[in-house]
Design brief:
By secondary structure, this protein is of the alpha+beta class. It has a single domain (3-116), classed as Endonuclease, Chain A, CATH 3.40.960. It contains five helices and four strands; from the N terminus they run ααβββαβαα. It has a four-stranded mixed beta sheet with strand order 1-2-3-4, with helices on both faces. β3, α3 and β4 (89-94) form a beta-alpha-beta unit. The relative contact order is 0.16.
């Protein structure tokens, strides 16, 4: 995907973010999670990751109800494999996880960050 197209897509996705994305972003932005710098709607290859920490090569993906169909599950799996092939680790959470158990989600991200630190 061309950089200009990816940039426009990222801007559009940021403007249409879900409530769960907003809630997680408030917990991640500005180094609020252990000083880690996350970016949202970050381009990786031909994809736009929901959140990414470049220093740890860690991607956080949030999945809403649309991700529960068989086609979406397959597409998400293939997308994750492509991103992991580029050297990134991917953590997936449902929107309901973020909304109901944000502290557990953040604990999982912290645990993965400890494993990924150089």
């Amino acid at each position: 995907m061309k950089r200009e197209v990816r940039t426009r897509l990222a801007r559009d996705l940021r403007q249409r973010e879900t409530f769960a994305e907003k809630k997680l972003w408030q917990a991640l932005r500005g180094g609020r999670l252990d000083g880690l710098k996350f970016r949202r709607q970050f381009g990786i290859g031909r994809y736009c990751a929901d959140f990414a920490c470049e220093s740890l090569m860690l991607v956080i993906e949030l999945d809403g109800g649309i991700h529960e169909t068989d086609d979406a599950v397959l597409n998400d799996h293939l997308r994750q494999q492509d991103i992991e092939t580029l050297g990134w680790s991917v953590l997936r959470f449902s929107n309901s996880d973020v909304l109901a158990r944000l502290s557990d989600v953040l604990a999982s991200i912290r645990a993965q960050a400890r494993l990924a630190r150089p």
